Every structure is written in structure tokens, then in C-alpha cells.
Amino acid sequence: MESASSDTSEFLDGSPLSTNPSTPLNPSTTNLVKLSREAATEVLPVTKAKNICCVGAGYVGGPTAAVIAFQNPNIRVTVVDKDINRIRKWNSQHPPIHEPGLNEIVRVARDGTNATKVNVDGAFTAELPARLPNLFFSTEVAKCVSEADIVFLSVNTPTKITGIGAGAATNMVALEGATKDIAIAAKPGAIIVEKSTVPCRTAQIIRDTLEVHRPGVPFEILSNPEFLAEGTAIKDLLNPDRILIGSSRTKAGLAAAATLEEVYSAWVDRSKIVTVNLWSSELSKLVANAMLAQRISSINTVSSICERTGADVDEIAKAIGLDPRLGSKFLKAGLGFGGSCFKKDILSLVYLAQTLNLEEVAEYWMQVITINEFQRNRFVKRVVSNLHGTLIGKKISILGYAFKKDTSDTRESPAVEVVKSLLADNPAEIAIFDPRCNPEDVKDEIKRLFATTGLKLLKPDGPIEVYKDSYEACADSSAILILTEWDQFRYPPLQNKESVFVKTNPSPVSSTTLTSHVPSELDILHMMASARKNKITSPTDLEPPLDTDPLNRYLPEPACAEGCRDCERGSVEEVIASENLEWARIAYQMKKPKWVFDGRGLVDVVEMEKLGFRVEVIGKAGSRSRLHGFDGDRC
After folding, report:
1. Could you give the CA distance from residue 113 to residue 527 in angstroms, rounded to a whole number?
2. Strand partners, 113
3. Catalytic residue set
4. What mean pLDDT comes out for the span 206-228?
5. Using CA of residue 407, residue 412, residue 416, residue 421, what is the dihedral sign?
6. Which one of 38, 310, 493, 604 is least enclosed by Cβ atoms within 10 Å?
7. Which of 236, 230, 576, 581 is nearest to 436 (CA)?
8. 398 vs 401: CA distance, rounded Å
9. Residue 620: DSSP 8-state
10. Is 452 helix (H, G, I), strand (E, B) or coil?
11. Angle value at C-alpha 586, between 385 and 625, nearest 5 degrees
């Protein structure tokens, strides 16, 4: 692609290029990075970024900017958004999203840290220096953009709901508006980075917008899609399997890609940083999500066959996952995919295929979504069927409302669609509990989702109640539906969970190494997370609670203003949110025959039956079914 820079005529020939990972780094502001091509080698100046601005403080922009700031203490990183309430939350004790490890990362980068000394097993003392804040959140979009060397575009790109392409095409309103703001405010030579998931060739739209508002001013446009999974976003950012950077094939384009590579190389091995052309980068994100969703729908079709034949979908997934050509990931049968990405990105791919007159391709990918909806509907029918075809007069308990574990995000959650379907059968009560979703936020969403119907669905006017306590939610219930794969719902319970801050393939660290090198911020967070296990102590007087700040590392969080709405509404208590359910206690409170419908494959049927439950698990014939064949004692 031609970039909006002054040297667009100087194209480099050949296949997509990558900066040479063997090039030694110069500590000065400017590095010389070798860029290879056929029959020649260009040596280009690469400027190190000192100031980064991320436009959009949502699920992508906030965590991404936080980790970049955390790993680059010498770079000022500012996240901007026109949503005053969202920025207020990022600058408070109530971040707008929940991700394991996010709060710790934000506190270090946004607030700075104390200096302290730590004794480890009495073998050595590690000195931990204080750190100044370098992560900021602001509503001053123009000011912050004007100061940035690199500007990330991380705005929402939902599916259009009206007009041409409604239901499939991507709504580009937010991206178009943000691009205009950037075009007007950005300084000449700034690097504009697509972080949002966008249709292929969106960089051309950005370039055209820049040319309209700042004709002749040099800018470079890069594509740098995120490959994060909600619930593991911080872990994915700290230990990425790849960083993809798409650029134009000009000298300036490749130099811009190298500048962005410098930012990531602070913690990512250069062998994992891949540079391609702009269009390949944009399309790679859509294809990656479509392929992952396809695997989910594929195994879910198999689960429907298993339920009617007596086969076990988990055993099948294990058997085929041992084939190295397939692998074991994304072969867990369940209620299907949710969230803001998979469905939206498949629809974008479908619309792209349609606009290219590739109807067969569009139909193929559309079937992935069709199967996803089929799986949810099938699950609800199974519930109603086992409850003798009616829910009237019965309390149905929902465990899990977020679309997946370890997040508070409920967008496109399967639980939402299940609740909608259950309402049609007029249950006496639908009791909802999620360990990370604030009940008040869930109530607000239910009001919004059903606003156009005029129905009053929340108690006391309707059947829906949202609980803070799981046991209250399940008391006197006729059936429990497990809709989110929270580890807290497992039975037998999960004993240990890996820290978010564990490095992938870490090199062995000896006491000698640590005494001669200051631990990294990531080392420190891992030490704090595993303080009890590693017996780390501090010579300073620690203020409670020691389990959250055993090294007295954190500075106080920003104080909330008087009358803070989030303080008044309360937050999810960490202990309650993390504790495993006592299924025996739940069984004691339920109405017979104590049905549990496991839509996520979290419970062991035999062990649950010992507690007195009747259990139906997705992808398996019911425990009382004759399909178990030779298991005569279970027929």
C-alpha cells in the first residue's frame, strides 16, 4: 500500500520483510536497523518512541497500554477516551473491566511504587528500586495525541445494525471519528497503529482521512492486531505467542514497523515479532478468530451426536487432540462462543466474501454461527424436557453470566440468550449469580436488553433476580444451569491455579544471579503473587492485607470522590469471588430431584450423583439413559 508519507515512491521489492533480529541495539535515541530485500540491504534510522497515546480505553486499549507502560518505564503511555465515566474508573480503585493481573499491572504503572528490600529464604537481599508513574488516563484527546510519537487506534468496531450490510458489515463510525481527531491533532511523522479489529484494507480509509485533513503531512500507518483472549489478556500480553506488525513496503513504512518493534522488544523475543504487509495483517486477525470459532462449532456438532449415541465428547476430544496435526486447544464442547469478537469477526469475513462475490465462502463461514446458535437452543430444550416440559412454578438458578471465566464481560454471552429462552416458559424465578459480575451491572444490562419490549423482568415485577451470594441463588431451586466455565464451579474442586505473572519458559534463576541483577517488575509481581509459597519476607513494617501487598510495594490507590457511584454500589469481594462452591451445601438447599445441567463440562457426574444430584452434561448421554449400554448398573 502507498502510505501517507513523503517517500511513497521508494518501494522495497520482494516478499514481506522483517527487521533483522541479530542487529545490535544502540542505547541512543536512534538505532540503525537493517531491512533485507532481494539483492540489497537498506540501513534505516529508527527513532525510539518516548510518548505513546492509545485512543480508546476499552477491553483492548486499556490492558494493552497498561502492559506496554509496565514493560517500558521510560515511555510515557496515555490512554484517552471521550467517555468521562470510563476514564474516571481507570483513574480510580474501580477499573471498568476485570482481568486477572490487570489491577496489579495498572497500580505499578499508573501509581508508581515504593522502594523496598526483600529477604528471600535468608539467602540474599534483593533491592527493589522505586518507580515513577508512566501510565495515564485522560479525556484530553487532542492534547495527548499531539504529543505522541505512536498513536494506537483501539476503538470499538461493532457489527452494523442498520443500513447497507446491516447484520454483517463492520460499523466504522467510531474508527472514522477517532481517525479524524488523530489527523487533526497528530504531529508530523507520527505513527498511526490500527489496534482495533477491522475489515481488510481499512488502512486505506485511514490514509485517505489523513490526506483530507492534513494533505502532504507525513504519517505512517501500521496494522498491529491484538490476539488476546479475555480472561487471560494480561497473561497473553506478557507472554505473547506472536506480535504481528503490518506495514507498507516503503522505507518509511518498514522503519515505522521497526520503531514499533522496539517497543515490544522490551519484553518480547524478536523471533516472535513478525512483520507482514498491511492487508495480510488486517485479514489475519479476522481469519484467526474465524478458525478458532470454527473449531468450537465443530466439536459442538460432535457433542450433539454423542448425546444420542452414548459416546463421550471429552474422550473424543482427547483422542483427536493427541494428533499433532490437530492439537487439543479449542476442543472443549460447551454452549458455544460468546463475547464481542468471534461472531462479529466471522460476520465481517462473511460480508467481505459477499462483496467479493464469493457466496459459497460466505455461506461456509455463516454455518459456524448457525451451529453456535443451535447449540444454545439445544441445551435449553434439554433443560425443559427433563423438567417435564414446563418451568411454571419452578426456580431456575444460573451459575455464570459472563461470556467466559476470568472476565466480567457479558457481551454476546451465551447466558444472555439462555435466559431469554427460559423466559418463554414462564419460570417462577430465574436466579443469576456470577462471581465477577456486579449484580447492579447485570440488572442494568437486563433493563437495557429488554427496554424496547416494555417488559418489567426484574423482581418484584418480574421473575429475574441477581444475587451476590451463590447459595442464596441456588436455595429452593429446581435446577441449576452452569453457563460459564468458572473454576469455582468445578467439582471436584480445582486445587491450584497458575499465577498470571509466571514467565513462559523462564530461565533458571539462582541466588547468585538475583544478587547481581535487580529483579524485573514482572519478577517482583510474581514474587508478590507467590509470597507465601516462596516464604518471601520484608524487613519493613507491612500494612495489611499482606496477601495483596506482601512486599509493601504499592503506593496508595487514587482516592474516590465523595459520592462515588462505584463505592456506593459495592464491588465483588475477592475472597468470595475466588472460593470454590460447596456443592454438598447446595444439594441440601435444593428441591428434589436436584437437577444440574452442566453446559461447560465442569463437574464429575458420578461424584455429583453421590451428593444427590441428577446431572446432565453437554456432550454426554444422561446418566440415567439406556445409551450407556453395557454399563448395566447405570441404566
Report:
1. 15
2. 131, 554
3. 341
4. 95
5. negative
6. 38
7. 576
8. 7
9. S
10. helix
11. 35
